[in-house]
Amino acid sequence: MSDLPTPESLVLTSRAEVATERPARYAKQLVSHMGHKVPVEEIENGHRITFNRDGNFNGYGDVLVFASERGEQLVLLAHADDDERLSRVEGVLGRHLEKFGERDGLKVVFER
Length: 112
What we know:
Elements: E1 12-18, H1 23-34, E2 40-43, E3 46-53, E4 56-68, E5 71-80, H2 83-100
Antiparallel strand pairs: 1-5, 2-3, 3-4, 4-5
Protein name: DUF2218 domain-containing protein
InterPro entries: UCP028291
C-alpha cells in the first residue's frame, strides 16, 4: 500500500456522525465485512479501509468510535481526490452500515 497516496494528501474529505447506542458493534461489523474485500488497518480510535480493489484506488474510509458527553458515537470519514471517488466511498460505507443497522434505523448522512 506504500505506493498509494496518504489520506492527508487527498483533497476531499467528508464526515458522517451516526447516532447509535452500539457504535463499537457496528464499527466491528462494517470493518469485518469490508476486510473480506479490501485492505483494512487499525488506526487511532478505529480502522481505515483502503478502497483499492483490483488496483482501482478510490480513497479511504475511516470507521471511528469516540466517547463524547452524549455517549459513544460512530464517525465515518471518507477521503478521496475527486467528487466521483468520494461519492463512491461514501456510498459504500453508508449503504453497508445502513443495511447492518436497519433494525435500529441507522441513517448515514455525509457532510463535506
